[in-house]
Amino acid sequence: MNARMISMSSWLLLSTLCLALPVYAQPADDEGTPWFQQRIDSDKYAVIITGAAASGEIAERFRRWTVELHDTLRDDYDYGSSNIRILFDEGQEVDGVTVAGSSRVDDIADVLSTLRAEVAAGDQISLIMIGHGSGTFGDAKFNNVGPDMTGAELAAALDGFTEQDMIVINTTSASFEFSRELSALGRVVLSATRSPSERYDPIFAGYLIEGLRNHTADLDRNGRVSILEVFNYASGRVAGWYDEQGRLAIENAVLDDTGDGLFSREPGLNQADGLLAEIAYLDVIVPEEEKASPQAPALRADMQSIEREIFILRNQKQNYLEDDYWRRLEALLIDLANRTRTYNALP
Amino acid sequence: MHCLKQTSLISLSTATLILLLAAAPVAVLVPDSAFAQEPAAGLNPSAQESLERGHELMMRGSYLAAVDVFNMVNDDFYQAQAALGLSQAHMQTGQYAQAEAVLQRIIDDPADSPELATRLAELYVMTGRSELAMSLLAEVVDGQLNPPVRTLVQYGLVQALRGEREGADVQFNSALARYDGGLVFASADVAMVAVAARQLDEFHDANALFSEAVRLDGNNLEALVLWGDLFQEKFNDEDAQINYNEALEVNRRHAPALVGLARIESPERHLSRALDANPSSVAALTTFGELMMRNGREEQGLDFLRQALDINPESIPALATLAAQAAMNDDMAEFDRLLQRVNTFSPESAHFYASVGEFLGNNYRFTEAVEYARRAIDRDPRNWYAHTVLGGNLVRLGQEDEGKMHLEQAFDNDPFNVLTSNMLQVFDVLEGYATLESEHFRVNMSQRDAQVLWPYMEPLLEDSWDQLVAKYGFEPEVPVVIQVFERTEDFAVRSVGLPDIGPLVGICFGKVVTLISPDTLSANWQEIVWHELVHVFTLQMTHNRMPRWLSEGISTWEERLGRPEWGRRQGMDLIRAVQQDRLLPVGNLNDGFTGANSNADLSFAYFQSYLVVEYIAEQYGFDDLLALIYEYAEIRAESDMFYNVFGVDMETFDAGFRDWIDQRVADINVYVHAEDSPDEGEGHGHGVRENSSAILAELYNSESLKQYMQGRVQREPRDFQAHLQLGIVLFREEAFEEAITHLRTAHGLLPDYTGYPSPALVLAQVYEAMGNEQARREQLAIMLENQQHDFNAPITLARHALETDDLDQAAYYIDRALAVDPYRPEVHHISAELASRRGDTARSVQDFEVLLVLDQNDPVASRTNLAQAYLDNRQPDDARMTVLRALETAPTYERAQEILLQAVGQEDN
After folding, report:
1. Which residues of A have a CB under 8 Å from any CB of B?
2. Is the pTM of this model over 0.90?
3. Strands, sheet with A124-130, edge to edge from the N-terminal-most edge strand
């Protein structure tokens, strides 16, 4: 692990302490700009770009994914309709959703430009791309209506979002080289494919939406779905589908959240990628109902503190003998469980 | 260029090099450098031309023409060469006496004519006079300062044949030293040095030397064939085949190459061609004899072997096969007589014993195979082939440690033997497997199977044991060893040593059973286990002497008795077989297995064997069946056995069986159209059999098909296939009521039909399309009365049973689904729900433990569910350890937190 990664992971560890409760904004600075701090006063936006389809059947599939994604963000993640910008194909109407424009390069640039003027520091933007892709190194493209957009063009359009958290999810075929051009420090980028040769239409988007719906991919049961969780869910389901079909997998999703342009197939603990994705949540932070009991704040703080210790211990697992690790973890978990029980019982 | 590989591909037979060398006539283009003298000035060009032409003709297989040409050589200077050529030409056509006469006419002092004398000695060996050959070669070797390489090697071979191993090694080493000294140049001689290297177990060098010999002279057919034989001996049939074909491209009548190729493919065709070229080819006759014996054509086999022995009374392969057959028949007097015959020229021949052992092992007489392999090794500890035979058969007896030791010994000294290396690789696989034991069984299976399959296999094994012991009044030796392999190749290698075993999914060796994991199959694994267990009983009851037809017949018959839905239902196949007169006489039932040319043939062999057993049980009773089984514990004529038990001769028994079959066909009373293809499935019969015509009707329904089938049912109202296909076509057209009519008719004609798709299955689909779920479920239930390999139907019915609180029914269908595929999470989810409803906390734990292995999508949920199940089953410590792992990932998961607190609370209490 290099120094940048170590400092990043330490910062991220501190960030995870803030997950249970809304945390008030901390001033950002150039050196240690906090990413995905999940502040209660931050807004979250989603931009869904759906490109041109090669056939009627595929167009219907893209339409369905677009609508399902919109509905899931609205219903399960508390996105207001105005916070979801849809750029769909030729800009035609789609039942149930408001289309902000077509997938032409100009419209994409306009919407992003407008959004840049609206957002505040600390807001989060998720950009999801649905459609076909193509390309090789230096010439990767998204097949939108009109001249195809290149990765460099989109990267340039996103450069203006310097004070916002950014998640890019590219679900198109041959998405890898395009996605690589979008890699940047503090940004989480998902690609449905890991090489330009994976040029058949992926099924990743469907499982991504399935994982998001009803928080199905919430494997750590904290009530939120992180980008890492939904990535693991979707990529796992994709692999399972090909296995069930007895076919060789022709798509392999990858993730980069270190900004180095190197994507991981299995991000997570002890891997180069995954630390930022683990704390990047799509969920809009909703303030918790306040407890009337005067013991509540202190108890809540205790719970947070124990969670912090659990995360620290978990991240240091390899430094402990196995028995010792589990003994320590158990003690913390029992303590947390007892305090949670007590807290829940408070008026 | 190919080389001797340490692991390679597929074959099931081999031959020993030494005996091929001894028995096969060889064709060698004798290079000029082999002769002692340079041609004098003023040579007769026509004589040399005649020699060259004669060799050319011989090389191309025109032996008679070659004889004529060699006879035309009158020049005294070339008489020796002409004699050599002439003798070779005679040998190629089996005229050994004439070949001998040609050589004897010209040899005065063997030491002065080493090449001629050596050739004469080879003829002596080929015709069973090894002692004479040895003294002749000794004379040459003693009388020459530098005997030719061929003489040295042939002398060594004869000594080895006669059991003088040390003397033989001296000759082989001399040949190698000659090569190392740079004194061997000609292709023919290099090939001989290769033979010497092979005899000294220097297989890598032998391979390199053969390669050099062929490089020096691509037309050296002897080298090509001997090299091929070396590959074949190591089970490298791929490279062997290349060599034989290369030789045959030069000379398509080259008998040794044809014999070699016969051991790989099209045996009868190639052997017939070999005998056409050389009717006295001992190798061809012996190989033919072995082939006939393997295929149950004992009389023909014996005839071929006797012919071989008439030509060469010292043919160890022929003698060994005859002796092994005598041992199979428990005719130890005959065995001893043959052994004594071998002892007269090759005392206590290790190769003889090893060959006998291999033959017995291939015929399921593993205990005896081990005995003879041990004798081979006692005689010659360097006989690595014997070590392989011993190791392989010990493994089949469940004596793994000693078996492995011998296999390792064989491999260490001969790493090129594919059979040995394959079998050792399986040991590596087994090292990673779990070993599980129950009261009567020791089972090896993968770690995954140990967690998923064992919970369901263990009770099945012990229940089956109790039932079968009670029924047959016999307790097999324990533990019965069962090995369940995830990979088909490992199953095949453990079973037969090589990775291709055809359609089998389970094999019983008497004390050991090998199985393919259900995770790799799509068939009712419980039925397969039951089937193989019955083999354990019947084989051990008869000391592995039971014929295959009866063993398979009883195991297949017992399937039906194990569960009502198990067993084979092939009514249409029976009708078709009777129409085509394909039923075999009971006395020839084994031919149905050995002579099967397709999966359909094999499947029918199982089916007919089962019918015979059912006939016996029905007409004579189970006690008589039991008595018949015990008859096979002793070797006697089958007709005597049948008479002892049934009081009738075989012909009468067969006639009774035929009458019973005719009645069965009359009872089935279904019209089978001659042009309809039979259902196809795996040859072993476990698994769904596909009705290809019905499947095509599903895919390509058309008006013309409909009209054709309507015509057929009008002509033959009991045409099952026509009604079924009409039903399918009409269903596709959404003419549901009409479809139902025809499908119900089809079902009524053959209610136990289980091919895919069956009338009941299609009816279920029709009702589903009509939105009539109840009728759909009824049809699925009807289908499952006779279809044991379906997973989805019992799952559907189990879910419905749970929804309607019919817990017993749910349990039944859950078991039905588990019998087919315990690797699908959904069946365990349903089972866990059932367990919860019934308060069966132990079963709940079992289900969630399996789900933890199978369901990788949400490990937190899986662990939490399991922890709850542990808690409910009063296993607080297990609950605690499990939920800790869930909370490690999801520390704020409140459900898991509660379980932890309860578990700790319970432990404290």
Report:
1. 20, 219-222, 233, 236-237, 240, 307, 310, 314, 326, 329-330, 333-334, 336-338, 340-341, 344
2. no
3. A99-101, A84-88, A44-50, A124-130, A165-170, A187-191, A254-256
